[in-house]
Design a protein that fits this description.
single chain, 255 residues, alpha/beta, Alpha-Beta Plaits, Oxidized Rhodanese, domain 1, 2 domains, 5-stranded mixed beta sheet, 7 helices
Length: 255
């Protein structure tokens, strides 16, 4: 079977009773042949999910959620193998563990893939990859700065040491967009005036520009490990059987 994989999030405050109701409904949701696989994180600040199944099953859940929450851009890709082992709905304290980065609130302007592509052709823009080092190692946008983080909570330390003018035009991106929802407003809260984020992240961009400015492959948090620029599962990378990190032989992390 060819699985349709859908990645999305919705950032909106949820009361405790809303979280309980949504989690209860989603836990009993899997239906279709085969049933849905994947993970949905439910938290006080919204939901964050990657799901996989038949096009009909995926569409049904997308529509149900879209009627209740302000959904982000939905990113689709495909997989010839089950991307997940089962269906999980997990309650978390936060959709993305962000530490102080997620406490600034506010907003930053979102750029569509077309606007992002045009912006990258300009001079004097600072491009920041807000993902972690093991993700960036597999691929990044041409010229992007690697903040050298192993967890997203360390992004605040990178920003503290960022020595650029406050009016510097800064472009931020991540896999599907949700980390930039935290990182871009945090940069603005630190006084940077021109901060932009890629709406829908790398996955959204590659849907529109498979031969664009992204170089290498995009790490994904499922059994496919990473996707090439045509959003096809990698034939190059795997997870190390010893440490679980993505890469090629020999493993970069293991001795």
């Amino acid at each position: 079977m060819n699985y349709l994989v859908s990645t999305f999030y919705a950032l909106t405050p949820l009361r405790d009773e809303q979280i309980q109701e949504m989690r209860s409904t989603l836990q009993e949701w899997p239906r279709g042949t085969p049933p849905l696989l994947g993970m949905v994180l439910v938290a006080p600040d919204g939901i964050n999910a990657t799901i996989a199944g038949s096009p009909q099953s995926v569409s049904q859940l997308e529509q149900w959620l879209s009627q209740r929450l302000p959904m982000s851009a939905i990113k689709h890709s495909h997989s010839p193998i089950p991307p997940f082992g089962r269906w999980k709905v997990v309650r978390r304290r936060e959709t993305v563990t962000s530490g102080v980065v997620g406490q600034s609130g506010g907003d930053a302007r979102r750029l569509s893939p077309a606007e992002w592509h045009a912006m990258l052709e300009q001079e004097n823009v600072l491009l920041i990859d807000v993902r972690n080092d093991y993700e960036i190692r597999l691929g990044r946008f041409r010229g992007a700065v690697d903040p050298g983080t192993s967890t997203f909570t360390q992004f605040a330390d990178f920003v503290a040491g960022l020595k650029v003018a406050k009016d510097q035009k800064i472009l931020t991106y991540c896999t599907g967009g949700i980390r930039c929802e935290k990182a871009a407003p945090y940069l603005k809260a630190q006084g940077f005036e021109q901060v932009f984020q890629l709406d829908g992240g790398i996955l959204h961009y590659m849907q529109h520009y498979p031969d664009g400015f992204f170089e290498g492959e995009c790490f994904v948090f499922d059994e496919r490990v990473s996707l090439d620029q045509q959003l096809q599962p990698t034939t190059r990378y795997r997870r190390c059987a010893l440490c679980g990190q993505p890469g090629e032989d020999p493993c970069h992390y293991c001795p």
